From TrEMBL:
This is Alpha-L-rhamnosidase. Coiled coil: none annotated. Residues 1-21 form the signal peptide. It comes from Talaromyces proteolyticus. Residues 77-101 are annotated as: Disordered. Residues 409-630 form the Alpha-L-rhamnosidase six-hairpin glycosidase domain. Keywords: Signal. PANTHER family: ALPHA-RHAMNOSIDASE (PTHR34987:SF5), C, PUTATIVE (AFU_ORTHOLOGUE AFUA_3G02880)-RELATED (PTHR34987). InterPro entries: 6-hairpin_glycosidase_sf, 6hp_glycosidase-like_sf, Bac_rhamnosid6H, Bac_rhamnosid_C, FA58C, Galactose-bd-like_sf. GO terms for molecular function: catalytic activity. Residues 732-800 form the Alpha-L-rhamnosidase C-terminal domain. Residues 87-204 form the F5/8 type C domain. SUPFAM superfamilies: Galactose-binding domain-like, Six-hairpin glycosidases. Residues 77-99 have a biased composition (Polar residues).
Length: 842
């Protein structure tokens, strides 16, 4: 015994030295990874491009001086041919109906003075296409101007005039790409016929056609180009844009704003606007009528005139902003597309949770810089979706709910999906608790509101959208797990007690009503959807494993409220459902759980991941299923959420960080930390290095693209699972009883991470943990506040020492009184009381 103490003391000294060597002494070094803005007023970080008549654009970044956009008057009256002029073409497309509007494509449309109509040839990619104009009287021309439709721009063409006996070339153009193309003649020509011969067109969306809107008998000034400035805010941000206008010309010049999270989808129309979700007050750009007098303009939802003119969307989530001097013709006479505008400054009023250094109640740092970056990028992604629920900022608009107005909530996405969905909170809630405890009400407000909107049949709605009627099948169970998470991470049992009857009702009334009574498994009616509106019905592994997870969470919650008979009833049901899943849904040929009992080819990341998390899969099946998924679904940008394309056409190329979180946790839980980190590095590395950088996306599609194109949200709280995964499994800190009253420290000691440290605020005080691993010696040190108890798990070596006392050794030289549990390849020292402790395993 004495020998052991001596040996332990020596070890500790060594360890003390090693710890100093391995873990940097600066305990605030985690702060270097924080990416949130310093304050709510955000100014652009750079000008990416400018075009047209723009001066001093840099002032928008430097703050020095005034930026001017100006544009000459746009011509609205045009030259015309003498009355009686005719036009003939080599061919004419037949009249048809386009979007319900009847259209013609006659040659005469090119001389009718109407900019809506055009001549369209009928021979795509065949040349030449000719248009001959014949005037009843002679005209004198110094040139002509060809106005074409964007979908049929002539690239190479010549203009000839008739000199009485011959056609003579008067001008030729090659390589044109402009819709308005001037063809000057070298001298004035008097003629009664002009012929256009096209030998190449641009390939448009409808094919390679010539589409001439007008061929004017004169040189028409090019409309001066639309002045544009593209601003980069440096990272994804969310809030209300503000523009401080110094002045404008006295014709109410128009400013149009197009927002985008990525450069790929930055066009003259926002990557997403409310017009994409049914609210069409804007055509995808926000409009401003700039007055001559100074104006501080804030992007506010609504219209400045008549309820339908000069309109804006209000809040935006974006990184890039295109500012143009232009106006919609439908906004006349309140704005015009010309004049000048002087801008003092452009800034964003950031409305979401401001993650300053002092706002971090919990933090994380380890020896791997990239993992640290992922942790703080996830924190910022989540901050972007914590905001006040306002009728004018939710999306879609029909998500607005009187019972949530004015409350702090956690939305799904920043630019889009601005409605709190409880399945998303299963991930984003944990991220919030682990970073900013003072945002806990955001989760409570949503959980409580959804409970208050429970149906009489026990079903709990996923969100406020459609007046709480969107029929999702999985989200009632996420309500259960998220409610337990709220208690685990905050300890705030009192707030949740009144919702206990809702918990009983969802599990004891609704779940049985959708249970297949032959197997005891949930059977989803086709009228319900799920997290991705997947067309799976009947007995599906994901819903059932999630059901088991919910039942176990509910049992824990019931125990916390001293409802032990419910607890044991729900745990028994969890066990019975687990057994039924194993009997009905295991595919022994593949060594993984089937996605759907009726489809023998498909295996899902969601069902298999949660099978491990919920304990449905024993060790053999867990390892087999995780190996199967790693082998079948790994992509450069994460693991696909299905192993084939039978459910959705991109099943094996679509990646959800949401479902990947289950997979990643499952790998950590089963001793596959290296495979978990491999998945994390592919998935989060891909997103972190792709535009817009930092924030994590709603979903990833083929080849690592945004899975729903411009519509995809690039900042989605449900994709922040890397943060709880790193805290829970790399640092190893996890609450196991309400508010960390009981918690575990069980680092996974990944091969390529040599140390980690971090802390969490709890209702009892701060828990601080650090560990290092060097030359096979693991050292875990922690400080726990009064009222808490910890279980510490370290690798099984030759002995384990707690605060200098050997508490376990291979040769059984243990000190009594300390409960120690020997696992397959680890040792758990249980019920370590509050205070400062060090556990060493070598
Ligand atoms: C510790 O790290 C933080 C963040 O990188 C830095 O701001 C601070 O200066 C460092 N302190 C010391 C004493 O090096
Ligand atoms: C221009 O053509 C369109 C389409 O045929 C028609 O609806 C419109 O009334 C015309 N405009 C004028 C001024 O004739
Ligand atoms: C050429 O024709 C244009 C337009 O018809 C006219 O304005 C201009 O005066 C003419 N120039 C000469 C040199 O005749
Ligand atoms: C018309 O072209 C032909 C052949 O190039 C030429 O012989 C003839 O002289 C031209 N006629 C006139 C009026 O220029
Ligand atoms: C059109 O051509 C000009 C000159 O080559 C080029 O600068 C411009 O980018 C092109 N525009 C488009 C839309 O292709
Ligand atoms: C606009 O706000 C700025 C400060 O942000 C202030 O200096 C300026 O006077 C304001 N202009 C008007 C017209 O209120
Ligand atoms: C920013 O927006 C918030 C929320 O709408 C508002 O309370 C605040 O006054 C705004 N700040 C500025 C400077 O306009
Ligand atoms: C939403 O549903 C509730 C309860 O059915 C009803 O009282 C309320 O009028 C509905 N609200 C709207 C906007 O339809
Ligand atoms: C299973 O039994 C319950 C009653 O325990 C019933 O409510 C439910 O409808 C049954 N399920 C099916 C699919 O018939
Ligand atoms: C897991 O379950 C399967 C099927 O019942 C069984 O064959 C296997 O031995 C079990 N593995 C463990 C580790 O219990
Ligand atoms: C693939 O599965 C085998 C076991 O069948 C396993 O040894 C291997 O590590 C797996 N591959 C990956 C990439 O996980
Ligand atoms: C750990 O191993 C390294 C490399 O072999 C060695 O330099 C170091 O002294 C070792 N540390 C201890 C405590 O043995």
């Amino acid at each position: 015994m004495k020998l052991c103490y001596l040996k332990a003391a020596v070890l500790l000294l060594n360890q003390g030295h090693l710890v100093v060597a391995a873990i940097p002494s600066n305990k605030t070094s985690w702060q270097q990874y924080v990416v949130a803005p310093q304050n709510r007023k955000i100014v652009p970080s750079s000008i990416l491009s400018q075009s047209g008549n723009v001066s001093n654009a840099d002032a928008l970044v430097s703050g020095n001086g005034v930026t001017r956009l100006s544009r000459a008057d746009v011509q609205t009256t045009f030259p015309s041919w003498p009355s009686g002029t005719t036009a003939n073409a080599s061919s004419e497309a037949a009249p048809n109906t386009d979007n319900g509007v009847p259209r013609t494509y006659y040659a005469s449309n090119a001389i009718d003075g109407n900019l809506t109509t055009f001549w369209n040839d009928n021979t795509p990619a065949q040349y030449p296409d000719t248009l001959t104009i014949t005037s009843p009287t002679q005209v004198t021309l110094d040139g002509v101007t060809l106005e074409s439709s964007t979908d049929g721009v002539p690239v190479d063409f010549i203009i000839e005039t008739w000199d009485g006996s011959n056609w003579t070339e008067a001008g030729s153009i090659t390589g044109n790409n402009a819709t308005r193309c001037r063809v000057p003649f070298s001298q004035n020509i008097t003629t009664n016929q002009v012929r256009l011969t096209v030998t190449q067109d641009q390939a448009g969306s409808k094919g390679e056609y010539t589409r001439v809107t007008e061929l004017w008998p004169a040189l028409v000034a090019d409309d001066s180009a639309v002045p544009e400035i593209v601003l980069d805010f440096g990272k994804n941000v969310v809030g209300f844009l503000q523009i401080d206008f110094a002045s404008g010309s006295n014709n109410a010049p128009g400013i149009q704003l197009a927002f985008s999270e990525t450069l790929q989808y930055l066009t003259s129309v926002s990557d997403f606007s409310r017009s994409d979700n049914g609210d069409t007050i804007t055509p995808g750009t926000d409009q401003i009528a700039v007055p001559a007098a100074p104006l501080n303009w804030t992007d506010t939802y609504g219209c400045t005139y008549n309820g339908n003119q000069v309109c804006a969307d209000g809040i935006h989530g974006f990184r890039y902003l295109k500012i143009s001097l232009n106006a919609l013709s439908s906004d006349a006479p309140y704005t015009s597309p010309s004049g000048f505008v002087d801008i003092n400054s452009v800034s964003l009023n950031f409305t979401a949770y401001l993650g300053t250094l002092s706002s971090y109640s919990g933090w994380f740092e380890c020896s791997d810089q990239q993992l640290n970056e992922f942790w703080y990028d996830a924190a910022y992604t989540n901050e972007m979706v914590i905001d006040t629920f306002l009728a004018d900022t939710v999306d879609p608009r029909n998500s607005a709910s009187p019972s949530l107005l004015g409350k702090q909530v956690i939305f799904d996405g920043a630019k889009r999906d601005r409605d709190p969905y409880v399945g998303d909170i299963a991930v984003s809630g944990r991220t919030a608790y682990l970073t900013h405890q003072d945002a806990s009400n955001a989760m409570l407000n949503v959980l409580a509101d959804l409970a208050e909107h429970q149906s009489s049949n026990g079903w709990i709605p996923p969100a406020s959208i459609n007046n709480y009627t969107l029929p999702l099948f999985d989200y009632p169970f996420w309500w259960v797990t998220s409610t337990w998470d709220y208690i685990l991470y905050t300890g705030d049992i009192a707030q949740v007690t009144s919702y206990y009857p809702n918990l009983q009702s969802v599990l004891d009334t609704w779940a049985p009503s959708v249970t297949d009574n032959t197997t005891g498994l949930l059977s989803k009616p086709s009228s319900y959807g799920d997290y991705a509106f997947l067309s799976r019905s009947g007995i599906v592994t994901y819903y059932n494993t999630l059901y088991v997870l919910a039942l176990s969470s509910a049992a824990n919650l019931a125990n916390a409220l001293n409802q032990s008979s419910d607890a044991s009833r729900w745990q028994q049901r969890a066990d019975a459902v687990s057994q039924a899943i194993n009997e009905n849904l295991w595919d022994s040929a593949s060594g993984a759980y089937l996605d759907d009992s009726t489809v023998s080819t498909r295996h899902g990341q969601d069902g298999n991941g949660i099978a491990v998390l919920s304990g449905v899969a024993n060790n053999t099946r867990a390892q087999s299923a995780l190996d199967y998924l790693a082998n079948k679904t790994a992509l450069a940008y994460g693991n696909a959420f299905m192993d084939d394309d039978s459910l959705v056409s991109d099943g094996s190329s679509r990646v959800y960080a949401f479902t990947s979180y289950f997979d990643i946790q499952a790998r950590f839980l089963t001793g596959n930390a290296d495979s978990a980190l491999d998945e994390i590095r592919r998935l989060y590395g891909w997103m972190a290095q792709s535009d817009p950088g930092v924030t994590f996306w709603e979903g990833i599609g083929a080849n690592g693209s945004a899975y729903e194109g411009a519509f995809t949200s690039k900042a989605h709280g449900w994709s922040t699972g890397v943060l709880p995964a790193l805290t829970n499994y790399v640092l190893g800190l996890m609450p196991t009883g309400p508010g960390y009253q009981h918690f575990s420290i069980a680092p996974s000691f990944p091969k390529d991470v040599s140390w980690a440290r971090g802390q969490e605020a709890t209702r009892y005080g701060v828990v601080y943990v650090e560990w290092s691993m060097e030359n096979g010696t693991a050292t875990v040190s922690f400080t726990a506040p009064n009222g808490t108890v910890a279980d510490v798990t370290v690798p099984k070596g030759s002995e384990v020492v707690l605060d200098g006392t050997v508490v376990w050794s291979v040769d059984n030289q243990t000190v009594s009184g300390v409960p120690v549990q020997e696992n397959a390849d680890s040792i758990t020292v249980s019920d370590v009381s509050s205070g400062q402790h060090t556990v060493v395993s070598e």
